[in-house]
User: Fold this.
Amino acid sequence: WRVKAYDNAGNTNNTWSAVWTVILDTAQVVPALLSPVSGAITNLGNPVFLWTDESSAASLYWIEIRTNDLSGNVVLSNDGISAVSPSHQFGSALADGRYAWRVKAQKSSTGLWNAWSASNLLIIDTTAPGSPTSLTPSSGTTSTDATPLFSWSAPADLNGISSYEIEIDSVVYTASIDSYTPGALSQASHSWRVRAIDSAGN
Assistant:
């Protein structure tokens, strides 16, 4: 298409604009993101990104990762991913933080890049939580209760604590809160300790 101008008196210099071409493509190829799901928290700095394209009409894929959300800076990008394998793992690891990732496809029939997919949010957390504190009963305590309540205070963690492992006499138990009551213990000296596991599995 092209255009030329007329003034209010109906005059024109008969000069047309440059010719522009518009390609109409109402059947966009938009990938659907599979993994990591939106809101996922992982302790892997270089996770595998997976998506799907049921149209089978793509020749290439383009993936980009931005800090925080789509308004953030692009930190990793690759526009040469083969359509044979709708997945990608970057060679460099992401630092701990919050990211948004998305993918778009190059349509085979037109050679044009189609619209971006929706974005998924991803949290990278490779930092282990600290040790629980304020353990009770304290070391050396004598108790008359065969099923004592073991308790502790949760350590600080950016993305929260998901569970605990408590070891009593070399046997490990799992607790979802900051306390644990064992089955009846024998009359003897017993050792115990606890560690925290955060939402990323650290």
User: Anything to note?
Assistant: The two ends are 59 Å apart (CA to CA).
